[in-house]
Structures are given as structure tokens and as C-alpha cells.
Design brief:
Blueprint: E1 3-12, H1 16-23, E2 43-46, E3 52-57, E4 61-71, E5 75-84, E6 88-99, E7 102-112, H2 121-145, E8 151-160, E9 163-173, H3 177-196, E10 205-212, E11 217-225, E12 238-242, E13 245-253, H4 260-271, E14 284-287, E15 300-306
Antiparallel strand pairs: 1-7, 2-3, 3-4, 4-5, 5-6, 6-7, 8-13, 9-11, 9-12, 10-11, 10-14, 13-15, 14-15
Length: 308
């Protein structure tokens, strides 16, 4: 069976003594789990003292997690068993290494895939790694602020009306996406304020034409809806029109660094056949308020997938 290994880490500005009780008691995991956030209504059962945890859901599948070995304030090792969507087992481990005034938290997984999924090994390592990154980021917020600061609202299928827009199309690495989008949206909003005035209509949004997680490549457009398309635009701008359609909508409230929770949840819902995507229309992300004048915990963004 093809072996699989994932290693992810994050620096948390707190001593190991503050982090350890959150990790070694599985009743705390619901607050920062990168999977439970995608299906908060899943059935969750945690045994007394928090050393054994079972889950069963339509979106996140079914399985159990059992703490096998603990070294106080240093490490926690667990046996992980997946029952749905397929059966497999893994060993996961948290290691806490003191770094200055804080702690580096290292999360690892050693597992194997069913033999018939050998071709998915690299892809699964990437996807699980992304889940671990999301979970560690929420764990960091939980330890440092008292909250994971990420909430999802599943709005289901909504209507999206015909939208004219102006945009900037760019390509970048996934690691540089935030900086690239900030640059494009800054340029876009400056043009709108100076040249279009009251022609602006609605909230800025991005279109994701391609997101290749294996190659770390992203092609996207930073866009803003307009009542009418202007006659003159900068050379690196373009104009377009989105058709009237239905979209499956997941709303995220909290700092933008957690937006991956909304994207991951939407894709989990797609795999669970909660909606059938219209593959010819790329997914979108709409900002409902501005990070320039909104506290980051109150930022709201919606992830939209066109549906058939």
C-alpha cells in the first residue's frame, strides 16, 4: 500500500504549557478542527477525559481518534481510523518545541492509501497538508486570542444576477497570492475612485480561473462590478459580464487568513454531492466589507460556485 507522510508546523506565541491542554483533550478539537468547521452538524462523541473521539457526518465521513501516548507539554501521539469514505489508518503526532517566548507546534501524519488509490498519493499529501495548515492557523488564534476567529455559514443555492465588471487578470504562485491580489485590487480601486465615480455598483470580487494546488499556480482576476463599462480603461485591465445563474454559497466571517476554510468546505460539499457545479464557470469570492475600515474579526467574504 502506498505510504503517505505529512508534516506541518506553526509558531504560536505561547508557552507549551498553554498549548498542551488544548491538544491532549479531544473535547477541545471542535473549536479548531479543519474538518468539523465544514460540517458543524456532524455527530461528534468524545469519551470522558477527552482521550477518544468519534465522528460521523455526510460531509466529513466517519472515523475515530484515540490518544495513545502523551509526554506532558512535549508531545501527543494518536491512532486515527477512517471508516468513511474509505477505510484506512494513520498515526498522527503533535510535538511542542519551545522557541524563545513561544512554541513551534509540529503536526505529522504517517498513513497509507488503499492500493487502488496509489495514483492519488501526492495529491492527498498536498490536500491533507492544506487541512493541517488551516487547523494549525485556527489553533494559533485559539491559543493567542481565545477564539479560532473563523465562522462559516452555509447559505446553499442563491441567485446571482447578470453583472458587468472591470478586472485585472494575473498569474502568481499560491504562496504569493495575497500580495498579488492586494496589488491588483489597490490599482483597481484607485481607478474606480478616480475615473468611474458613481458607476461603481456592488462589492469587489475575484474570479479563480485556475488554481493548481500541485504546481502551486493560480490564475485569477481581481474585479469590481460597474453599472456601465467605461469607454477607456488602462491597458492591463479588461471588461466582462457574468451571466445570471445560480450559485452555491459559503460565507466566512473572520480574518482573511482563514478564508481557506470556506473554500475547503465548499469543495467538501461538492464531493458530498450537495451541489452539481457548472464547470464552465469558474468559482468566485466576493468581499462584503472592506479590510481598510472593518475589524478583521468582522470581515465577511462569500465563496460562490456556479451550479447546474
Amino acid at each position: 500500500m502506498p505510504k503517505m507522510k505529512v508534516i506541518k508546523s506553526i509558531y504560536i506565541d505561547a508557552a507549551p504549557e498553554k498549548i498542551y491542554p488544548i491538544i491532549n483533550n479531544l473535547s477541545n478539537w471542535e473549536q479548531w478542527s479543519p474538518w468539523v468547521i465544514a460540517e458543524p452538524t456532524a455527530q461528534l462523541n468524545v469519551a470522558k477525559y477527552g482521550k477518544y473521539h468519534e465522528w460521523d457526518g455526510e460531509i466529513i465521513g466517519a472515523g475515530n481518534l484515540k490518544i495513545q501516548e502523551e509526554i506532558e507539554n512535549e508531545s501527543v501521539s494518536m491512532a486515527l481510523t477512517f471508516l468513511k469514505p474509505w477505510k484506512s489508518k494513520a498515526i498522527t503526532r503533535f510535538t511542542l518545541e519551545k522557541k524563545g517566548k513561544g512554541t513551534e507546534v509540529i503536526w505529522t501524519m504517517d498513513s497509507s492509501l488503499p492500493f487502488f488509490l496509489f495514483w492519488m498519493k501526492k495529491q492527498m499529501e498536498v490536500f491533507v497538508g492544506m487541512d493541517y495548515d488551516r487547523g494549525l492557523t485556527m489553533l494559533k488564534d485559539l491559543v493567542e486570542t481565545g477564539s479560532s476567529n473563523s465562522t462559516l455559514t452555509f447559505k446553499g443555492v442563491k441567485s446571482f444576477y447578470t453583472t458587468k465588471y472591470i478586472g485585472i487578470k494575473s498569474q502568481c504562485s499560491s504562496s504569493n497570492l495575497g500580495q498579488s491580489m492586494e496589488k491588483d485590487f489597490t490599482q483597481l480601486m484607485e481607478f474606480i475612485r478616480e475615473k468611474t465615480g458613481e458607476n461603481a455598483h456592488g462589492n469587489p470580487f475575484s474570479i479563480y480561473h485556475e488554481f493548481d494546488v500541485m504546481k502551486g499556480k493560480v490564475i485569477y482576476s481581481a474585479c469590481h462590478p460597474l453599472k456601465e463599462i467605461p469607454s477607456k480603461i488602462p491597458e492591463n485591465f479588461y471588461t466582462g459580464e457574468l451571466p445570471k445563474m445560480r450559485v452555491y454559497t459559503v460565507s466566512h466571517t473572520g480574518p482573511y487568513r482563514h478564508i481557506g476554510n470556506a473554500w475547503s468546505a465548499a469543495m467538501m460539499h461538492q464531493r458530498a454531492k450537495k451541489f452539481r457545479p457548472a464547470k464552465k464557470i469558474p468559482p468566485m469570492e466576493v468581499m462584503l466589507n472592506s479590510p481598510k475600515d472593518t475589524p478583521e474579526k468582522e470581515l465577511i467574504a462569500e465563496v460562490l460556485f456556479a451550479v447546474k
